[in-house]
Amino acid sequence: MNAPLTAVAISCTLKPSPAASSSDLLATQMLDALAGHGVTGSLVRAVDLQLSPGVQKDMGGDDQWPSIRRRVLDADILVFATPTWMGQHSSVAQRVLERLDAELSETDARGRPTLFDKVAVAGIVGNEDGAHHIAAILFQALNDVGFTVPAQGSVYWNGEAMHTTDYKDLDETPEKVASAIRTSTANAAHLARLLKGQVYPTPS
């Protein structure tokens, strides 16, 4: 089945535009790989928007989360990209996870959680260890709100500890990273098509 699919990548870099971002680069590479599987995607840099603290789908005032939420709900695949700081995902990534928490109390027309039938993959970059820990945190949270995680659904690059080379500074993408991108995106597109063709049942 070749049903058209869409993806949205949320980059959780701490750097506002137009600064270069390794998280943006990896997210874009993952979107490009998804395009090879017939998936149309777009990127949003969360730090450029006003995301109010809270766990509601709309915190009112100048909160811009509703616009990101709409893009997440409209997409079949979420690419969640974050840098590593002090061995942890970024504060922006945590804010996005907290805002997604609102979906625990939201249901679709079938009475199912709004994020059922959607797939999530992760991209993690940094000059320190922590990628596996961050992937575990992200996937637990994303799965809890309804996303399905494909086999080998995370892509990461760890630079040499205590050095200053960033992922965006590399002359070329390391083959191990390129291979992980190919695998994660192929599996994400495959799984998203399966879920599009046969959705999860309504909880009894």
From TrEMBL:
Alphabetized SUPFAM superfamilies for the sequence: Flavoproteins
Protein's UniProt name: Flavodoxin family protein
Domain of life: Bacteria
Organism: Microbacterium algeriense
Transmembrane segments: none
Signal peptide boundaries: none
Domain NADPH-dependent FMN reductase-like: 9-158
Family annotation (Gene3D superfamilies): 3.40.50.360
